[in-house]
Amino acid sequence: MPDAPAMRPYVGWAGDRSSGTVLVFARESRAAKPVVYGLLMSRAHVEYADVRVGRCPPHQVGRLMQYVRPRMAASGLAHGSDLVPTCSQCQDWASPIAADGTCSACSAAAQEAA
Model-level pTM? Predict the structure, then answer.
């Protein structure tokens, strides 16, 4: 039997992606979707059919893997992480956060406005 795939970071959302996303670690998207649903339901009412899951971009995987829970990953259990720093402006975690607490998009918008 082949080895099980390693844990991967997934981004999950419901409806409009700009209304909030969650970070989930799972071996496959089918395992990530129920976890995303549970995390989103804790914030607001969402329908399971509206939940979407996508793999995080390859260039962000290294940065995001530091937020995986080692015991859950070792057991192969899909899980979410609320430890990821978010932008103080837009609450997004998908981009690296600068020392001022903002993501690159919000930093660029602030510089253009100035």
Answer: 0.81
